Sequence to fold (800 residues):
Amino acid sequence: MTRAPYDGVVLTCPVTVPYVRYSNETAHWWIARGLRGALDAAGLKPAQIDGLSISSFTLFPDTPVGLTQHLGLSLRYLDTIPMGGASGVVAARRAARAVQAGDADIVACVAGDANRIDSFRQLLSAFSRFSLDASYPYGFGGPNATFSLIMDAYMAEYGATRADFGRIAVAQRANALRNPHALMKKPLSLEDYLGARMISDPVALFDCVMPCAGAEAFLVMREDEAIRRNLPFARIRGTIERHNAFADDPVQLRGGWAMDIDTLYAQAGCAPQDIDLLQTYDDYPVISMMQIEDLGFCEKGAGAEFVRAHDLTIEGDFPHNTSGGQLSVGQAGAAGGYLGMVEAIRQVTAQAGPTQVKDARLAMVSGFGMVNYDRGVCSGVAILEGAS
Amino acid sequence: MTLTGPKKKDPQKRTIVPTLPPATRSRAGLGLSVAAAQGRFALQHCAECGAVQYPPRDACHACLSHDLCWKDTQPYGKVLAETRVQASPDPYFRERLPWRMGSVRLTAGPVVLAHLVDVRRGEDVQVELRLDRAGQGVMIARPKERSDDMEDDPVLRAMGTHPKHRRILISDATHPVARPLIDALFAAGAAHVFAGVPEMWRRPHGVSALEGLENVSLLPLDVTDPQSLKDAASEIGGKVDILINTARHIRPGGVLGQDTTAARDEMEVNALGLMRLAQAFGPGMAARTADGVNSAAAFVTVLSAHALSPDPAFGAFNASQAAARSIAQTLRAEFAPSGLRVACVYTGPTEDEWHQSLPPPKVAPKTLARSIVDGLQKGLEDIYCGDVARDLAERWRSDPGLLEREITGGGA
Fold:
């Protein structure tokens, strides 16, 4: 059965609550600010929304249920998307279906996380059962160690070099220098990247994101509602999600995107060359390179050659992670899974300001999340189109 | 790589406070630790479809059966990817960086993350389960051919109890195992042996042979005498890296047909003596588990395998052995925060005057010595010496009720 299109539903009011490295504020505080920002952008009062989708790692002991009372919301659609880096795409597609079916009129999708001193270590130490049993006892390198193994195997398999991954990081830093919200303010050269200290070979300092606090949000509503309120919006041309794909691959050299990508392009009625900009989930450059392959921009294993042949900056021939991505903006927990989505909505609605890609119409947003044991388990992609 | 001996300790410096690697495990995950404590390589197998899986789960990932069991598994594989962790938020690893780990595809199927010992990506390896400093089972990938200095690798040294460069206290040098044990410890690289002698004034049998041995010090030590323990601990307590309790009082006989004199002596030496030893030396050892090359590592006690299920012919003695085993289990919990390992060596009937009338197989002192040192080299908690002990333990694990009846002559 072919999947129904996402007709009549739009994404609007992209909001970023500027990140800070450490903050004593709670996830509740960050989420409230993200929600308020999106409502303000739409000219809505809290009582006017009837749906909420939340992604956060640091709400404990609350769940989004607690947030309804905490924030004074009466809802008929309440969702929690615990998918880390895939949260933005998955939240959008599920909220879109709820609005399309009439189960909700306006859904606010919000991701936000706190980052106190030592909270990252504490979050890691109870991240998943398989991590407790089978990953942390081996050096407790966290995701850096997990992705160093993936990067090591990827380099051995496809011949990519550290300089190839460096191109991704360096281009993103150039993009970030235009983004006033990015935590990284200094230029990054390829020499800086290559000379950085090793964190978990071959992962070095500039392969890693900086944990921080922050929030991201957007609204999902019917197209006629957005038009009535005079809001710039993006349509969903197609979207897919996949969990625990290719479980028999001994090392994750491809993600779940590869399993459903043809379905996505078929639903969206477009091809890779039609995409104006790409937002990948960049917890590590190797994962961005893998996405460029698995999303069909080049053959499997040709990612290194692709980034050598293209300019990944805002004004380049392949604009990629235009906000600077998590590598240069920072990783605000689950909000890291919203960063690309929120930036893509801004881009296709011509609201990206200093990071705006000229004539951006079609954007692809890719998500990837949750290292349960030795690999990221969740993946998702959406193709957004600006209304013109 | 060859591990060099410790530098002379600077008394002005604070002794490093022991930290532990992450210790939390799921209930299923503890299966690895159980296997590692015995030196077995076991993984979860599905009883219905035969799938082998890792990490441990509560249902089969192939058929959803909940009928899972731990089975000895082929311990071979190939390294898929490797790294050196150079930054870790965990205090234990942070003190020991860089730390080598990687992923290994087992021939049995699953991919495991493992500590890497002298192996690289693409190499065929053997995988062992060992106890780490937190007392939990972890995967070690090492070359298929074991080398002499493999145990010197910092990864293994950090979690192990190898006697190399360590100073060992044998609590009772009058036990027949003492001499072969001293030889085996030195062969394994031990630095020094302190040998306790109860009632030194009696010139006990066998002790004179130890006098004048290089790097062996005899000292008065009687596990039933608190003052002698206090004196010994104040003299050498800060230098004991491994303690091996060999003190044993044994008399044949069950419960009926005699008074409790022998039983009381057996309890005094075998059970309360173990307690007193732990009270005298334990706290000092527990404070020194991160003290460099010759850090404190293990507290070992020798038990009869009938601690698990008694032989009525030695019923009173076996009661003291069961008590000692129980005390050792409590000590294991009490020492856990320090990482000091508690090992029990279960032996079958030993070749000595008290078992003279029993038929073979019996455990020769040399064999017992080899088992103890082998267990220390592998960092085990449960060491079974000899066929009788291994057989008894196997039957005890599978059905203790049946074992009791078999010992008393049933099941012909």
Q: What stands out?
A: Chain B is about 30% helix and 20% strand.
